Amino acid sequence: MFLSVFDMFKVGIGPSSSHTMGPMVAAARFLDHLRTLPFGISGIKASLHGSLAFSGVGHATDRAVILGLAGFIPSAYDAPRAEAELTRVKDEATVKVEGLGTLRFDPAQDLLFDYGPPLPGHANGLRFMATDAQGDVIAQETYYSIGGGFVVTEAELGAEPPAPAANFPYPFATAAEMLAMARASGKSIAQMKRANELALMGPNALDDGMRRIWAVMRACIDRGLETDGTLPGGLKVKRRAKAIREALERERGLNLTAPHVINDWISTYAMAVNEENAAGGQVVTAPTNGAAGVVPATIRYWLDHVPGASEARVGEFLLTASAIGGLVKHNASISGAECGCQAEVGAASAMAAAGLAAVLGGTPEQVENAAEIALEHHLGMTCDPVKGLVQVPCIERNGLGAIKAVSAASLALRGDGSHFMPLDNCIEAMRQTGADMSEKYKETALGGLAVNVPNC
Questions:
Q1: Cβ neighbours of residue 257 closer than 8 Å, sequence gap 6 or more
Q2: Predicted TM-score (pTM) of this structure
């Protein structure tokens, strides 16, 4: 099992990695598939299923599909050009596709929200169909957006995983294997993860890539801390990060601030990211968009508030966090539509706790303990976004996830790494809890807070 640091941390756009980035990627993959066909195509149709249908409008899934078919990809998203192209597609009912020409696609007629049962493979399913001049379907493919921007075809979902593309020196698939390899090698989790990454790329590419990841994260925090106003979508949720940041800065030096106010800083960093995400801005999946604020907020807390912190060690934080995120994804899920928010903010909190414990000098056992504490105390958390928007409760939830990450790392560092519940068992408990959880609480906006809103 190998998931790169750049699989767990991907530059993309808000508001959702599974509902926005994933469908955009799936559309691009379908276009690539059409380019291989030996016959001509006249039009395209698409259908959204399961959670993609129920909360797709709030998550901008329809926009993502349209833009994906128009050639846009999350990592190189140009917002002004996207808005212009959205208008053109809706006005002209066509998409202009490199290598395929101008194809008929009327979003009002050719993009279906199917509110029936989800497709069998995953809660986030979508189908693309190619049509001939008469409108008959001549090719189709089913895709599943499985969380964190990862996309698989129906065939890939049920297939054996491909053989590793390289020989990784530390091929751990469980936390127990990870700790055993750390003990045998004398290396930290980050050092083992780095060695695995270097089996695929050179050190300059790895370090430059991680610097870019942190640069995008930090810029996202900064934009959120400087921007106010009302978030789109109809809930009229006001951005709060800027006002809270200004209030915290005014209180500095007044000797009136209680020690627990540090939690406000941590929350504000996270909220800044998730307000940007809710507005459709550029974010980094960590491991998802809905949980994108937890890891960067924890890093920012460490850099700005902990003596001795250095940006030179952010890569160590990211490598450690990605190792934990990879274990969660491989052995359970990072998809809110599959396992609820425990799989998103819970996984993010575990990743952040592990990264923080590592840069604060924790042993591999203490790092694993930190991740377990953070994940354990998110078990059972539902994904119940009001109106299908990644705003309530998602924005504040990231703040609390970051606070839990810091507390988990601190608790773990107070011990020697030995503890009752192994991380592997906690991940399995999360998987089982997600399997038992009602579909109402898996990003469908059909239960929980999503249906208990003020009458107005």
A1: 251
A2: 0.94
Q: Please state the φ and ψ torsions of residue 137, each to the nearest 5 degrees.
A: -75, 125
Instruction: Give the separation between CA 387 and CA 234, rounded to whole angstroms.
Output: 9
Q: Which of 68, 239, 26 is nearest to 153 (CA)?
A: 26
Mean pLDDT score of the chain: 96
Tell the burial category of 7 from Cβ atoms under 10 Å away from its Cβ (0-12, 13-18, 19+): middle
Cis preceding-peptide flag for 15 (omega within 30 of 0): yes
364-392 pLDDT tens trace: 999 999 999 999 999 999 999 999 999 99
- Taking a C-beta distance cutoff of 8 angstroms, is the pair 124, 40 a contact? no
pLDDT tens sequence across 50-75: 999 999 999 999 999 999 999 999 98
Q: How far apart are CA 287 and CA 349, in angstroms?
A: 10
| CA pair distance 74, 281, nearest whole angstrom | 11
Closest CA to 408 of 325, 343, 348: 348
Q: For each of the domains in the chain, give its residue range(s) and CATH number, in order of start.
A: 15-158 (3.30.1330.90), 175-451 (no CATH)
Convert the pLDDT of each residue in 229-252 to its tens digit. Answer: 999 999 999 999 999 999 999 998
Compute CA distances 225 → 194, 289, 437, whole Å.
32, 18, 35
DSSP codes, 320-362: HHHHHHHHHHHHS---HHHH-GGGTHHHHHHHHHHHHHHHTT-
**Secondary structure string (H, E, C) spanning 351-386:** HHHHHHHHHCCCCHHHHHHHHHHHHHCCCCCCECCH
Burial class (CB in 10 A: 0-12, 13-18, 19+), 36: exposed
Q: Are 331 and 8 in contact (CB under 8 A)?
A: no
> Which structure tokens are listed for 155?
């065939």
> Does position 456 have pLDDT exceeding 70, yes or no?
no
Angle between helix 345-359 and 189-197 (nearest 10): 110
* Cα–Cα distance for residue pair 393/377, rounded to 1 Å: 17
